[in-house]
Specification:
The chain has about 350 residues and is of the alpha/beta class. It has 14 helices and 13 strands. It has one domain: NAD(P)-binding Rossmann-like Domain (Rossmann fold, 3-Layer(aba) Sandwich), CATH 3.40.50.720. The protein starts with a helix and ends in an 8-residue tail after the last helix. The structure holds nicotinamide-adenine-dinucleotide (NAD).
């Protein structure tokens, strides 16, 4: 490196050197880094349509996009989503994604540049009871969105897929994106079907897309009365002092990721990962028994669990290798399991204190 006095005089001799010198000084003093930090999240404002934006994950994605300065429109039929999850700064259309003409009106008036597709029927057991419903909503509903994205020249389509249900019972763990696809239930099959179509829309119509295969996502706003989402269900039961039931032995394992980390992947996918599929996850499993034990500690629950029969169609162990997301998106989960569980318990406790406990599941 040139000694300091020389560095200060030499660049003054010619204009270009002077600019370089100013740049170097600013970088050394951290001014540039500071400016970058200040402008983080202030990229171009985009019009973004989030389907399922009143649901658990979708509503967190909406909040983050609005925080980043984007104009957000939500389409949701409120079948499992809640009005109270809706961000008041988002424009809301209560609409079923099976309603193609209703959706077209939304595209025509809102002209979204990005579609972030979270609306879905998302329950393994329900899909086994009603496979046709899952094809109608998850497949045809998604195709309606793809057709309109093509017609209205959407710049990017982000798709919330599932790493927990498309691989079936894994041949190796952690499962990476190259693992064979072998869903065991109509839910997993319906979610994967759309991945094929995204590929076809990419090669035939030039649609840009990113597929995110989610692990077991948990956190605030997950439905504690749902059939899926073991963290929310246990937390609700424990805070209400009800008998908690573990399906099967409880030795089944999942890759539990806190919702904020999933939101971050959606933000990264706005301008990265074109035409790619990414697993999201820690790469290791945690058993349902372990989740129960930690939540028992965090809630101060006094009872031991009762074990019920295992659930048909459910994978026994699945966790996901997210190396590709780390390398290409720069995605690394930040919220440890203990921290995420604590935050989730605190959220449900707070809701119980603030209002009608039944409404929030505690
Ligand atoms: P959720 O049920 O809370 O959210 C789904 C949202 O879609 C709800 O707001 C619901 O009202 C809406 N919706 C359902 N059918 C609709 C329809 N026909 N028209 C319009 N809106 C409709 O579930 P979630 O856990 O937030 O899941 C969001 C997405 O993430 C889903 O696509 C799901 O497949 C995917 N996913 C979730 C997980 C997880 O662990 N929660 C794991 C893998 C993938």
């Amino acid at each position: 490196m040139i000694p300091a006095p020389e560095r200060m005089i030499k660049p003054l001799l010619d204009g270009r050197g002077f600019i370089v010198w100013i740049w170097e000084i600013r970088r050394e003093w951290g001014i540039i880094a500071l400016e970058r930090e200040q402008f983080k999240g202030r990229g171009a404002t985009m019009r973004i349509l989030v389907t399922g934006g009143a649901g658990f994950i979708g509503s967190h994605v909406v909040d983050a996009l609005i925080e980043e300065g984007h104009e957000v429109t939500v389409v949701d039929d409120l079948s499992t989503g809640k009005r109270r999850n809706l961000n008041p700064q988002a424009k809301f259309y209560r609409l079923d994604i099976r309603d193609a003409s209703g959706l077209e009106e939304v595209f025509a008036s809102e002209r979204p540049e990005i579609v972030d597709h979270h609306a879905a029927k998302a329950n393994v057991r329900e899909s086994l009871r009603d496979p046709v419903l899952y094809a109608e909503v998850n497949v045809i509903g998604s195709l309606n969105l793809l057709e309109l994205s093509r017609k209205y020249e959407v710049k990017k389509f982000i798709y919330a897929s599932t790493g927990g249900a498309v691989y079936g019972e894994p041949e190796y763990l952690p499962a990476d994106e190259a693992h064979p696809i072998n869903p065991l239930d109509p839910y997993g099959a319906s979610k994967h079907f759309v991945e094929h179509y995204l590929h076809l829309y990419g090669i035939n119509y030039g649609l840009h897309y990113t597929i995110l295969r989610y692990p077991n996502v948990y956190g605030p706003r997950q439905d504690p009365y749902g059939e899926a989402g073991v963290v929310a269900i246990f937390t609700g039961q424990m805070l209400r002092g009800e008998q908690a039931v573990i399906n099967g032995s409880g030795e089944q394992e999942r890759d539990f990721v806190y919702v904020d980390d999933i939101v971050e992947a959606n933000l990264l996918a706005l301008d990265k990962g074109d035409g790619e599929i990414y697993n999201l996850g820690w790469g290791f499993g945690t058993s349902v028994n372990e989740i129960f034990a930690r939540l028992k500690e965090f809630t101060g629950y006094a009872l031991d669990p009762v074990h019920g029969p295992p659930i048909q169609g459910e994978v026994f162990k699945i966790y996901l290798d997210a190396t590709k997301a780390r390398e290409e998106l720069g995605w690394v989960p930040q919220v440890s399991l203990d921290e995420g569980l604590r935050r989730t318990v605190e959220y449900f406790r707070e809701k119980a204190r603030a209002g009608n406990p039944r409404k929030f599941g505690v």
